[in-house]
Specification:
- The chain is built from 2 helices and no strands.
- It is an all-alpha fold and 91 residues long.
- It has one domain.
- Helix 1 runs antiparallel to helix 2.
- The longest helix has 35 residues.
- The two termini are 14 Å apart.
């Protein structure tokens, strides 16, 4: 196999690896997000997002923490997909 073919295969493997990494990070990052949004308990500090009497700043922080996970995982999967697509199209 020539070197260009090898580079294409390695690039596609790298893209698929990044996609799997994004999918594997999902559950652990979801637990971290849940711990952050829940009330403070023991050593874990939380935002207490279910409390209706928190300040507007805390509500905005809860929304930002809640929306960060899908954007982060989606971005990682998108980067992996772009690598695979680039290797297929521009090979």
């Amino acid at each position: 196999m020539n070197t260009k073919g090898s580079v294409i295969i390695y690039g596609m493997m790298l893209g698929v690896l990044i996609i799997f990494l994004g999918l594997a990070l999902g559950p652990s990052l979801q637990k971290i997000t849940d711990d952050t949004m829940n009330a403070t308990s023991g050593d874990t500090l939380g935002l207490d997002c279910t409390n209706t009497s928190i300040s507007t700043f805390d509500k905005l922080t809860c929304n930002a923490v809640d929306i960060t996970l899908p954007y982060f995982i989606g971005t990682v999967i998108l980067i992996g997909g772009l690598i695979v697509t680039a290797k297929i199209i521009f090979a």
